[in-house]
Amino acid sequence: MEVLLLGLKGCFFLLILCLWISKEVVGSTIGNSSVSSRPKVLKIGALFTVDSVIGKSAQAGIMAAIEDVNANSTVLSGFNLEVIYKDTNCSGFLGTVEALQLMENEVFAAIGPQSSGIAHIISHVVNELHVPLLSFGATDPTLSSLQYPYFVRTTHSDYFQMYAVADLVDFYRWRQVIAIFVDDDNGRNGVAVLGDALAKKRGKISYKAALSPGASDSNISDLLNGVNLMESRVFVLHVNPDTGLAIFDVAKNLGMMKSGYVWIATDWLPSKLDSMETVDADKLNLLQGVVALRHHTPDTNLKKSFFSRLKNTKGMETERFNSYSLYAYDSVWLAAHALDAFLKQGGNISFSSDPKLVDTNGSMLHLSSLRVFDGGPSFLPTLLRTNFTGLSGQIQFDSDNNLIQPSYDILNIGESGLRRVGYWSNYSGLSVLAPEILYTRPPNTSSSNQKLLNVLWPGETINTPKGWVFPNNGEPLKIAVPHRVSYLGFVSKDKNPPGVKGYCIDVFEAAINLLPYPVPRKYILYGDGNRNPDYSQLVNEVALNTYDAAVGDVTIVPNRTRILDFTQPFMESGLVVVVPVKEIKSSPWAFLKPFTAQMWCVTGAFFLFVGAVVWILEHRHNPEFRGPPKKQIMTIFWFTFSTMFFSHRENTVSGLGRFVLIIWLFVVLIINSSYTASLTSILTVQQLSSQIEGIESLISGTQPIGIQDGSFAKRYLIDELNIQPSRIISLRDPKAYGDALTRGPKAGGVMAIVDELPYIELFMSSTNCKFRTVGQEFTKSGWGFGFQRDSPLAIDMSTAILQLSENGDLQKIHDKWISRHDCAAKVNDDVDSNELSLSSFWGLFLICGIACFLSLIAFFVRVFCQYMKFIPEDEEVDPENPSNSPSKKFRPSKSFRDLIVFVDKREREIKEILRQKSKKRRRGESLDDQSSTQSPMDAAGV
Question: What is the pTM of this model?
């Protein structure tokens, strides 16, 4: 019984215990305020190389952050953070193993790694286990948030650093750089981004020099010897801080730290120098003139006190820390803030086994020990939404999970250490103002807004290096010069040094002298001297590195610009068509050609019309326009045609006549001037001896066409204009030009010559303008100097040519070598086009005609008014016995002859008759008044 009772008591106790446990469990899952199931210690991992430049600073930052979080009552209250350190030992394999071991400890997040290579591998693991990886040192741009959502970069990506380097290179107008990098994920991918950034600035990486991660001094020496033979002198050094200084030691021994060299180091170098206890003078002297970038962190009192605290902390291996300690510190706080928000939102820290990770076939890897963070999918968004101000600045992520406001300090290393010469931010580019100030202003990335302080370059010079030298250790440039046999004024062989001469050579030498650096050069004649060389083949030889440049009358055409870089054109050029001309023989009727037949007829008619109008207006006033009909007709003809030469003898006395004559004399003046100009043009014009009017008519024909030896015109006519090769004849020199054109196609010559305008102008002037161009230039190009692709000398020479053009030296060189007589560039073969038609003068004739008609209307109105007063009476009145006269009655004359007779009378006679008639009228009116005043008695007595 006792045993039975004891058994019953035990079962009851177990039942009560199970009920209590289930109650507690249910309560913890239902009530959000209950945290009894939550662990009091929260584990966070730390993954980095302890014994490294970055690792030492990062460890100090992590330890300080853990201490501060645990001491802070507002964040993770009631919990303690415990950090689990794993040392990657600078090994990708060991780092991966350590990371896997870290995941066995049920950490809710991991700080690190500092290696991008390890980050690539571990990111796949944390994606599966849902554990966020907060990396303060993996700056590889290809660690994308799309591929690795649980990889959260708590520093700035090298994507922004490489764009800062590209802006720096563009600021000093360099176009090529040599990238020296460690051949790992971080190095390769960073340099790839640099190439893209430079391409947007019209620059490029001319050579990528890769070093193995553990390269020896001999390997470094071999690599630097190779790049030192190349053209670019701008080196971008993207390596590890632990081994990077060895490169400068080797470069110093090879003489690559002197004037003319440019060294740009990424953030590894400031990280190394900031971590060194003391930087001796020899080290600074070694690095003198180097420009470096460092992650920008605001200069706040909080940051200063933090570094002072680390320096005074006991047990630290170093008293100097770089910016990675700040990013590591902020990474811990980021995890703490996010976890605090996650727990307050009801999140739970729990882990479970991944069914995919099952040990099979007796595997000793124990993959089943890796635990999945159940709250990871909810914790990650909370992490990315976290926003606070840390020691390194604002901790906030953009849509691509990158920290906002990336910025860098631009540093210059001198004898006194690191000196800041400016800043870079993706907000406003290069500036001497801190990014915190610029963020309060509108963004401005224009080139005029980019500024930096003066930099002390290698060799202790403040003059900006040109950034390149001639390859092969400064050997002279091999310059190919066409060995011409014609038009030697442009370029030809010379007995005196440098062995060539001509217009093109003088332009090239004048441009070279404007450059701020010496250019050793050697001219090499290209061609056998019997015929002009093939210029297309000459260009190909330069492209194949047989020569470094081509100098001469080389035309810039599209297929050549694809393989060479040309300078700014120093002479305009274009293809034209040349044909022979002949003088027009004088014609006995050439004087009639200035006007068209219609113009002659209208002009003659107006001469007669104006003469008749002036005669009508002057006939009653001017005795010179009166007399017998025959004399008056002769007067009309003489007067009107004598006005052509302004030699008329008759004077005009009436106002209307003078008005008409003034208008007419103006018309005659314009007609005379136009006639003289047109006749001069017609008598001096030349006419073509062929029917070719331009390139269009030449294409449609079948006659042979002449071109110059070696010219690109042959390829152009065949490839672009589809002219049969059998029609094209190569001619050696201007003498052959003239002979072929003179003989013509029927005698074995050519119908026309197609060549560039500068040659044609000299050819025509040397033949006294017996040949002329027809049509327009059907290509637009110019002559330039050709260099190998991406040669910086092409850009500098273009600038020098523009300077020659602006100061007038280019024209002086032209006048020295090329003297020619001006020949008309185009001949008008249509003489009729010089004839003047009525359409050019109808306005003048209209004005003159209106003036004549208005004058005639005014004249006839006046005459009609006079005639109405002059109408004769039916009976004459007896002045002595007016009372016996009948009443006055007037009878209008119906005879047109009377009107003509009245019009023909002199104006003076008409006025006298009208005056007499006026007197008679007044006298008759007075007699009527007297008879009406007599009385009836007087009348009876009479």
Answer: 0.67
